Amino acid sequence: MRITILFGGTNKERLVSVASAQALHQALPDADLWFWDADDSVHEASGKALLAHARPFEDPFKADGARVGLSIEQAMDQAKADDRLLVLGLHGGRAENGELQAICEQRGIAFTGSGSASSNLAFDKVAAKRFAAIAGVHAPDGIALADIETAFAEHGKLIAKPARDGSSYGLIFVNSKQDIVAVRNAARTEEYVIEPFIVGTEATCGVLEQMDGSVIALPPIEIIPAEGGLGFDYRAKYLAAATQEICPGRFSPEITAAIMDMAARAHLALSCTGYSRTDCIVSDKGPVYLETNTLPGLTKASLYPKELKAQGIDFADFLKGQIAIAERRARG
């Protein structure tokens, strides 16, 4: 199989994808590079152009190679003809909601990460919370948009985020009635999940599938947003230098074990494959589930690679393991 790093995408997280591809290319220098552009076309890209792109979180990337297909479907037809295995350096949108995975599965194309069904399930925050709860994971209750004013009066602070998209974008902290208006306006164009704001420390925990099919939870990370920041949104993740990400987190052994157990339970409940990352809030009553990411960021600034390092796993070795799992799954 020809190893190919697929990055870019048609959604708002394509900038992060370019940064992930830079790290992937450095770990897999012999892999081909395919860039999925915002117009849905796919083009070859050179490693030189990719690594020379100095501001991936801020400036759009343009591929410098030949066009592979006018659409992602045409490109996947070519990937099938070439017997390619796709290392997915993609995030959000069609790349993470299961659509791309379904396109690959229909063609028998090997790819890293979770399959279409589990990707779609995890991408839907409401459904993901329901399945995680079945596995014994504590998750916050949802609030209907019609009840937002009553809930705000009761709780004093709420949080709202897109129901089917990454939380880096579109995150709204409801601290005033003006924020309620912002949520109503945002909900006109996409469904929003509204929850009580949980006071506590933000944390995240990766899960890794091993070659024998077993899964392990990686050391959790404690997240401290930059001073004055309200939460871990896009700016806090990728642009605010003062954001602290402490790995392993400074949690008690009991809380650390609870976070790791939550992440493993969510991974299995959502039938994830390969790797995932679960986010939570550590409240005074213990960890509270937020969401599970089936294609977490793999940039040099991302959380999952930091957890791999803390576990003593080299990034290139992680990728080789994921490639082996993807090939085995595609071969049946």
Q: Which terms summarize this structure?
A:
single chain; 332 residues; alpha+beta; six-stranded mixed beta sheet; six-stranded antiparallel beta sheet; 13 helices; 39% helix
Quickly describe the structure.
This protein has 332 residues and is of the alpha+beta class.
Please specify the SSE layout and strand pairing.
Blueprint: E1 2-8, H1 14-27, E2 32-36, E3 42-44, H2 47-52, E4 67-69, H3 72-82, E5 84-89, H4 93-96, H5 99-107, E6 110-111, H6 116-123, H7 125-134, H8 148-155, E7 158-162, E8 172-174, H9 177-186, E9 192-196, E10 201-209, E11 215-217, E12 221-224, H10 234-239, E13 244-246, H11 253-269, E14 275-283, E15 286-293, H12 303-311, H13 315-331
Helix pairs in contact: 3-5, 5-6
Structure description:
- The chain is of the alpha+beta class and 332 residues long.
- It has helices at residues 14-27, 47-52, 72-82, 93-96, 99-107, 116-123, 125-134, 148-155, 177-186, 234-239, 253-269, 303-311, 315-331, and strands at residues 2-8, 32-36, 42-44, 67-69, 84-89, 110-111, 158-162, 172-174, 192-196, 201-209, 215-217, 221-224, 244-246, 275-283, 286-293.
- The longest helix has 17 residues, at 253-269.
- It is globular and about 60 Å long.
Mean pLDDT, rounded to whole units?
A: 93
Instruction: Compute the separation of the termini in Å.
Output: 15 Å
The share of residues in helices is 25-40%
> What structural class results from the helix and strand content?
alpha+beta
* Helix count from the secondary structure assignment: 13
Query: How many β-strand runs?
Result: 15
Order of helices and strands: EHEEHEHEHHEHHHEEHEEEEHEHEEHH
- Overall body shape: globular
